[in-house]
Write a structure and sequence with these properties.
With 413 residues, this protein is α/β, with parallel strands linked by helices. The protein is built from eleven helices and twelve strands. This is S-adenosyl-L-methionine-dependent methyltransferase.
């Protein structure tokens, strides 16, 4: 794979040498290059479905800014002396519980109601000039309130934290909500693969009468400000969920396709069915692991990731069969909603252009955060990798690239 990438980069260098200004060297004809093709991809141009923008005329081009402001307001409401209707929420620290499979499973992890006073340290600045990160914007608005952050202090972890923040608000503003499932007055909500915990935190603020549990193999820090109805459990999704049978009203999962092994998907869905109450819902939000309308350099990245998925036991095209697996598990009333979001500012529509800008930023952060990984596997220099990333970013604009986020909603009978 590294040799293929090197050939692509060498051709790019040669073409750049004959140009007086920097621009993408990708051409439409290069898309069919056999050495860069991946098994599932089509050489034809793919048209994204952007009808999801139309039914919401009240949303202007500032949808993402509005979502950020609303989220910041929701989190601020969890600080001391703030009243939400007739319910007063006091500051408390969330609890991180490590699951012990030799003991009994959890009905609902206990909540530590002791006061915490820690605040989030703003993300370290990335090299070179850049826009303020979403986490920094929220930090300036929230002041004493803070979101969870990675347990490690390495700069790469802070950057990944920022990327997850951006992706969360991108999806929230595009979906106009944190959840599409028709949940009413839930008592227990579970967030599988909670990562930095932002979705769970916002749901805890929204559903303050429900217990919200974030599950992750590396949950957020326990000493942080947050709603008293929010807790975290350390567990591996590939194992048994540390929850009792029929104890959960709603299960949410997002971006776990690069974590759940191919031979574990049926087990994961069976576990969801087990812990759900009758009539409870699951909502899975998963993006295709490949990019739609890739240029030659992005195609090389995708081909490499397909090889890595095979090596790691992951299913590169799991989104093509996940719906069938959900139904085979025993869920009913399954609904699949694809959500195509452009990568870049190539759309003419103002709102899509803004979504595309944020989506492109998340892709740029992803590639920068994994620079060491790709350089080591491809055997290329730092300069060549940086050039490849720049080419990919320009290809998104030239090829009209987009990400397809799939959402499955299903009910337990």
């Amino acid at each position: 794979m590294g040799n293929q990438t090197s050939r692509v980069l060498e051709r790019t260098k040669e073409k750049r040498g004959s140009k007086t200004r920097r621009r993408s060297t990708a051409t439409v004809g290069a898309r069919s290059h056999s050495s860069l093709s991946i098994s599932h991809a089509s050489s034809s141009y793919s048209h994204g479905n952007y009808d999801w923008v139309e039914p919401f005329p009240s949303n202007g081009a500032g949808a993402i800014d509005n979502a950020m402001a609303a989220a910041a307001s929701a989190v601020v409401s969890t600080t001391p002396t703030t009243t939400m209707t007739t319910h007063t929420t006091t500051t408390s620290s969330t609890t991180t519980t490590k699951s012990d499979y030799s003991s009994s499973t959890l009905a609902a992890p206990s909540i530590n109601t002791s006061t915490a006073s820690s605040t989030m340290t703003p993300q370290k600045a990335m090299d070179g000039p850049r826009r303020k990160s979403i986490s920094e914007v929220l930090h300036s608005k929230q002041r004493k309130a803070s979101f969870s952050r990675p347990t490690a202090t390495a700069q790469e972890d802070f950057r990944e934290y920022d990327r997850l923040q951006r992706q969360h608000y991108l999806l929230k503003s595009a979906r106009k909500t944190n959840a599409w499932a028709p949940i009413e007055k839930p008592t227990t909500i579970v967030d599988i693969g909670t990562a930095n915990g932002i979705w769970a935190l916002e749901m805890a603020a929204e559903h303050f009468n429900a217990q919200v549990i974030g599950i992750d193999i590396k949950p957020p820090m326990s000493h942080q400000v947050g709603p008293k109805n929010l807790s975290y459990v350390e567990a591996d999704i590939n194992d048994r969920l540390p929850l009792e049978d029929a104890s959960v009203d709603f299960i949410f999962q997002r971006s776990m396709g690069n974590v759940i092994r191919k031979d574990k998907w049926s087990h994961v869905l069976q576990e969801m069915l087990r812990v759900l109450k009758p009539g409870g819902y699951i909502e899975l939000v998963e993006a295709d692991l490949w990019h739609h309308n890739p240029g030659p350099v992005q195609n090389a990245f995708d081909a490499f990731m397909q090889e890595q998925c095979t090596e790691w036991g992951l299913d590169f095209v799991f989104t093509e069969s996940l719906g069938s697996k959900i139904e085979e598990t025993g869920f009913e009333n399954m609904e699949h909603r694809p959500l195509d979001i452009p990568i870049g500012e190539w759309p003419k529509d103002a709102e899509l252009k803004q979504f595309g800008f944020i989506n492109k930023e998340t892709r740029k952060l992803y590639l920068r955060n994994r620079k060491t990984f790709f350089m080591g596997n491809w055997g290329i220099s730092s300069e060549d990798y940086d050039m490849a990333v720049q080419e990919v970013l320009e290809e998104f604009e030239d090829y009209h690239g987009f990400t397809r986020f799939n959402c499955w909603i299903a009910r337990k009978p």
